[in-house]
Amino acid sequence: MSLSQGLAASADEGGGGAERRGIQAYIFIGGIFFLTNFASPSLGLVDIPVSFFLKNRLHLDAHGTATFRLILSLPMILGFVFGFIRDSWSPLGRGDKGHLVLFALATATTYGVMTLLPPTYSVLLLGVMAATICFQMTNSVASGLTTILGRDHDQAGGMASASLIAAYLSQGLGFLTGGWLSGQLEGQSADNAAHSLFLAAALMMVALAIAGLMGPREVYAEAERARTRNHIVFDLKRLVRHWPIYPVMAMQILWQFSPATATVLQYHLTNTLHGTDAQWGEWNGIFIAAFVPGLTIYAYLCRRIALKWLLWGGFSLAVVQMTPFLFIKTPQGALIAAAFIGVLGAMAQASLVDLLIRSSPRGLEGTTFMLFFACYWAAFRGGDLFGTVLYDKFGFLPPVLATIAATALVLPIILLVPKQLTETRDGEPVRTAVGPAS
After folding, report:
1. Secondary structure letter of residue 378 according to DSSP
2. Could you give the number of structural domains in the chain?
3. Tell me, what's the pLDDT at 416?
């Protein structure tokens, strides 16, 4: 059943109305992913200015900045808890609409409070931590809705592409804005700089609350029908026993364990290659934006090629993703490489989210997607901290080689994915998988 047909069934409307509702669903999912990723406490708009504040004004070294980021990742590493709350609890009886409005406003309020406080290390740590905790609930809603609509209507690839394109466009804009803000705010007092930053983030979260309030009722209704009504222990056992999620989580951990791509690259670009704060923001913006053409291609290919071939092709390309950094000597060279690296990573990322949507157990969509994000943050921040140890002792080359090696290890994990999940194209029914690949 197509997405438009499914939504039409819930609204007792067919024809052009069904098609319109399908389009509205894609636009709504894209919109909330755009807003959540733009205003995320852990991404460019907030993370870049805060990280340079730590580096340039509080004089933290690479390891100290990575440690700060790792501490802030704790709510994200426990993200499956927020997903489980989303799957089990309907605030004010409004389901996902209640979650979006309530927690978007809570995040905005947290950012607002931070505009009134001095930007000390403790204030930044506790304030961004509080914003991250509130934000995790809005993220779980976006993730759960994407999984339900993509899986139940055999459009996992299309939903993966649409959500990732929206997320990466906003992340790219956030990184560019964050880098620009960081440079502009260098000349201001510390208080004014921090207050301007958090006010901008608060306004974005207010926009997310408004979007949640105006979301399509058919999408919310479908999500409510999928909500689990089981006892918490039963659902936890069901999640643990659901084999298909294990290979995809293992692939995510290896894929995101990238010691050379966060703090190490930031310090290498700005200290060794003598780049500016804005150029670090530009690097991230170009890298993220370069995913969009690849994701657009994936949206076309996923309806014509079975997922198993897209997984193998995507991660084979991703193995060579970081090789340009073996030769780069200037900030300008790094900016050029950012586009190459982003394009090569797009197919792997889209195919992995496609597989995640297909692998999710019914009624635990938010939990599964947030567990996927938890694996991301645990691997990414752990790899970041590991990379700074290598970088401080041995320089930039060992973190790059470690990143390449970790990506290569994803390939044999594909063999463990249940074949039923990967033998079809988008639009074809996916058979239920309950055990290891045979």
Report:
1. H
2. 1
3. 96
